[in-house]
């Protein structure tokens, strides 16, 4: 049974605090294994990657077959139905349109001193996207990771995806081809992350690695962080729905289940200002669970980590939501925009009952890679910004240096950094001698 | 003696590749110690923080004296000279003006489908800034970390700074007061990071921790990453100067030394298209080193890690620079803007010989917290963006859902995520029954 709480009851604060810090995943310590795999790939390159792929994926490769050939990709893509292709194309188009608006602007201005200041954005040169194999091989995730990189202008974009026993999802290859991916390697696990970070004879190293993966992939990403950039290490998915009584309990129930079905560790929470409505939604969840294909996953998730919280009013709902800082937040209320004004921490907001969270997973346009585990307090979903970086610009004139240089020299001396001061002083001295050109 | 290389010589590529991967710091493994300190602070709160401060900083504190009082701060600030105060105020004003331009814009638009999409930026609620003690206690770093947070609108901004034997730098407290810092705690090391991340009875937890520190601080930041946001883990400082022969060798020499004096592991590199000019700069460095206050630091840095590279032309200089991806890049050439067009990876560019890097350290306006160790390939300097996060927004209408919902349902089915599809289908079914309200 999910947790039922009411903010009007004694003990609510303690129970809510416990919900906030609830541990949903057992950390698996694979760090030593992963360190060994990375060292092996760094030492032996392709040979190590091929050997590990044979061991873990039961697949015999050569340096020549590490990547899918154009013919293989075409043959796989040909298997995709017309309907699936059209849906994926529409998703790609909408995700691209949304992310194109995120491209940051360069800036340059001249101050009264005559100095010019500004910054410039440039894309990461090469990015590697990890795509899990098996059940978690989601074509939508390929679009969500690759399109922001493509929009940013990343020159070389590659995928590493395990293909256990040689099995590949044709939709993954179609998604790759729709989003400008250059090469798809049949390599997974920590060995894929190591190859992307350090390179092998066949796989050139990249500068940034993104994409979800299992405990081995996550541990490897943590280890190569610094050598390359990485995206967040995502935890299990979460949804918070704030709904008033004027909703169909079944709609809210399927919305809650759409997160619960991802993972037994996923968490679905309903906050409502009507206790009876909360009960009705819980009953609707149970009804749907009877026939849901993934009830073996969604059931435990809902019963172990689900919660229905009754509050006095929607203002209180917003406060609790900000403490949860949910990955996904649905506002199924009469005035969703008004309520959203009070939301300070959330990965993505879905406004109104006609916006089920699943729209954001596939086709809305915004990214579905979002901060989990309360990290929306300090981080954002994946975006074009993850594939660009800023170079700041400064250009002094002799007059500008004469105006602000002495203060820099003074601060350098106060920090006992003499050479810093001298680098300004040497120039000011020439100005004082009247030798300034320009 | 620094390394002298010429791109025209045989063996250059190998020598340059070696320079790129040169290890400048021995990693100190303090991870177990740090794990113990964090566990202790989590378990015992203030008591642990006070005990560790007594042990490491020889300072006896109580919960009441963990933070500086307003009177103590006023008394320390009163010690600052008028000249130092004016310099710091000018720096704060210029840094604030630069960073104010970085505030990202919200967006919201309506598509032809009728759906509304967009995003909204909100500040992190609370940020903690670590300020090292002793020699590395730089007031300029307080401004560079705190002002972007202040500009972002961070509500609560605190500093943790060790004060060994009770000694504090008055300029640090003045910088804190100029940049909107609410509270300064006399706590340093891993215990400060643990207190900021998990909170104690006296120190409320924050959402984001930034600022430089020693190996213990860096290891602690790595460990609390995920619980809170952190900025980059900075390595030793670096400068690359690209200079043609029309420069005063002494100017370039002091610029190179202004990084070398930071740390024996710092790295200063000159690339020039004139071998004789390179020799003249190297000679000027040696001359300056004879009297430089910090020659015991700058000398080893220059001799162990410094390099003078002669290239055929400036285009080649830009190529090599992009492979180095320097933290600081000075372009002391006739057409610095033209050369900057070819630079794809650098933390900060200083355009023209009248812009010594030290201007950027103190007073130019751009941030001096910049990506080191080649990480400018994939990351940016500190900015307002580090203290805000994006919430994406989506609002469907019944008509919009009717138009794009079926594709979402199709993709959900292709990924075997039935409840995702059902959450769309439940709404489409009502539309099909002609019940749509609004």
UniProtKB/TrEMBL annotation, chains A, B:
Active site residues of this protein: 327 (proton acceptor), 328 (proton acceptor)
Similarity section: Belongs to the histidinol dehydrogenase family.
Function: Catalyzes the sequential NAD-dependent oxidations of L-histidinol to L-histidinaldehyde and then to L-histidine.
UniProt cofactor(s): Zn(2+)
PANTHER family: HISTIDINE BIOSYNTHESIS TRIFUNCTIONAL PROTEIN, HISTIDINOL DEHYDROGENASE HDH
Residues annotated to bind Zn(2+): 259, 262, 361, 420
The name this protein goes by in its record: Histidinol dehydrogenase
Pfam entry (one): Histidinol_dh
GO cellular component: cytosol
Organism: Dinoroseobacter shibae (strain DSM 16493 / NCIMB 14021 / DFL 12)
Binding site for substrate: 237, 259, 262, 328, 361, 415, 420
